[in-house]
Amino acid sequence: MNYVQAADDYLTYLQVEKNYSVNTLTSYAFDLKLYGEFLNTNDRSLVLDELTSSSVRRFVQDQVH
Q1: pTM assigned to the model
Q2: What is the pLDDT of residues 6-56, one digit of tens each?
Q3: Alpha-carbon distance values, 54 to 1, 23, 44, 50, 65 (Å)
Q4: Domain boundaries, the chain
Q5: Which of 1, 30, 32, 40 has the largest CB neighbor count within 10 A?
């Protein structure tokens, strides 16, 4: 499964199963979009099995700076 589909599925789960508020869903969607853009910009794989914790750490570092 690729990242984009997984992110969409996760947002649907939060909306349908968890009944999260619109504001919460919007915030999650924004963060997931930023991470996807980070992966694309840095030529990282969008395949879930190929994502690493180091890419997540790098993304967080980039967001802080």
Answers
A1: 0.90
A2: 999 999 999 999 999 999 999 999 999 999 999 999 999 999 999 999 999
A3: 20, 29, 11, 11, 17
A4: 3-64
A5: 32
